[in-house]
Amino acid sequence: MRLRVLAVTTVVGVVALALIGTYLSDRVRDALYDQRVTEALADAATRTGGVQIQFDGSTATTPAQVQGVADQILRAEQSAGASSIGALLRRSPVDPPTTAILDLSVGRIVEPSAPLRTAVQESGSQQWQAVEVTTAGGSGPGIIVGAPVALPEVGAYELYFVYSLITEQDTLVLIQQTLGLGALALVGLLAAMALYLTKQVLGPVQQAARTAERLAAGHLDERMTERGGDELALLGRSFNHMAASLQEQIERLANLSRVQQQFVSDVSHELRTPLTTIRMATELIFDERSAFTPTTRRSAELLHTQVDRFEALLGDLLEISRFDAGAAVLDAENLDVRSVVRRAVDLAAPLAERMGTSLGLQQPDRPCTADLDPRRIERVLRNLLANAIEHSEGTPIEVVVAANDSAVSVSVIDHGVGMTAAQSEQVFDRFWRADPSRTRTLGGSGLGLAISSEDARLHGGRLEAWGRPGAGATFRLTIPRRAGVTISDAPGPLERETGPTAPPPQREGPSPASLPSFEDLTGPTQGPHR
């Protein structure tokens, strides 16, 4: 910003000074030129009139005598102190006399051009023309002024005086140089003032930007320096007041978050023991349900189901508390992602068949190896598949495995109810549901996608969501092929066309195998969550 302000100020100053300098230079030049021309024309007219009087009063009667008189008059006119640098006497062809004298020239002469001579001859009055003259000091601009004169005995002639404008040109050059030096000095002063002003104005703004960056980096005690009582000082005080308020609120929220996390962790651990006892009693009652009345048997089954859900919720809470405490550890192996995906798809196939949904798997022919924790990646895929089955509404679900040099992606695509762009940004929040009033076919704690997102981050990857209402949703898991590698581009599909020309693709998937039920395999942390 400082450089831009300095550059703009300097450029504007240079342009303004150039325009002013050009205008002043032109005015001075025109004034000097016009004044010198006026003086030269007046001098030439006076001297021409004087020469004509001398010729009229001459007693010369022969051409030779007229030649001598003309030479004397011309030399006298061009004597020391004359304002012209040369004089010429040329015979005029208007009325050629029978006798003539030789053309005369005195001083530094410039021959009049044909147009000038023609103008003098035809107008019979004084005429002038700009020419280039040469003097002892060099060459430069000048003018030549001519007028007709009548010589005794020999007739019509033309008298020309040559005037130099070199002195005026030198004066103009001196003025232009002075203006140029003054302009340079003003530009330097203007740049220095602009630099000073930008430093005074932008300095606090830059300090505010640096302070804001440090605040964003977690240095909550960072503050601006307050000096003076002007508007910039007011900015500093307001900024510091805002920073202090933010620090207080962030620390209060952080403390509250720590208390909540500790509470969740403590409650989850404390509930494990009574839940184990309840589980044992429930299993005993459930195993003996055949001896109960129908009403009591149904109660035993509901109790068994809800204990399963309670155990799943408790497991999710414990897993979240481990992530919050930073205690989650990655047990990574270099494995082929395709085998993990195939196992997750096979486990979800019976549930998909029961829900009237088909699963399709598309994967490369070559191995897609990556450093991963198979337990966590399989848990993420089970969550995504269960979530897709819950919301696909019987439409096909596709699982696409893709890889490039740096990353491996697994995309789970459904064509069900979908979600809005805003919902796709909230779907990984804890306990968030897109439609709380919607009847759920499968149970869930509302933490599955939040845990899946944490599992992806633990691998150095990311879990992304895309959806459109009525067009389905896509969840893409991307992990680096080597631990610590930065993912530059995710190879798998995420966004897709949703218009009428892009119907849900149909791919052939693996035949559902005869496997135990989905719930029995997913463990306590499993459940569909959207």
TrEMBL record:
Q: Coiled coil located at which positions?
A: none
Ranges that cross the membrane: 6-24, 179-197
Q: Which UniProt keywords apply?
A: ATP-binding, Cell membrane, Kinase, Membrane, Nucleotide-binding, Phosphoprotein, Transferase, Transmembrane, Transmembrane helix, Two-component regulatory system
An example molecular function term from Gene Ontology annotations? phosphorelay sensor kinase activity
Task: Tell me which species this is from.
Answer: Serinibacter salmoneus
- Catalytic activity entry: ATP + protein L-histidine = ADP + protein N-phospho-L-histidine
**One GO cellular component, as annotated:** plasma membrane
Where the record annotates domain Histidine kinase, the positions are 266-483
Residue ranges constituting the HAMP domain according to the UniProt record:
199-251
Q: Which SMART domains did the record assign?
A: HAMP, HATPase_c, HisKA
Q: How does it sit in the membrane?
A: Multi-pass membrane protein
EC number annotated for this UniProt entry: 2.7.13.3
Location of region: Disordered:
482-530
InterPro entries, sorted = HAMP_dom, HATPase_C_sf, HATPase_dom, His_kinase_dom, HisK_dim/P_dom, HisK_dim/P_sf, MtrAB_MtrB, Sensor_HK_Regulatory
Would the keyword Nucleotide-binding turn up in this protein's UniProt record?
yes
Protein name in UniProt: Sensor histidine kinase MtrB
**A Pfam family reported for this protein in Swiss-Prot or TrEMBL:** HATPase_c
Where is this protein found?
Cell membrane
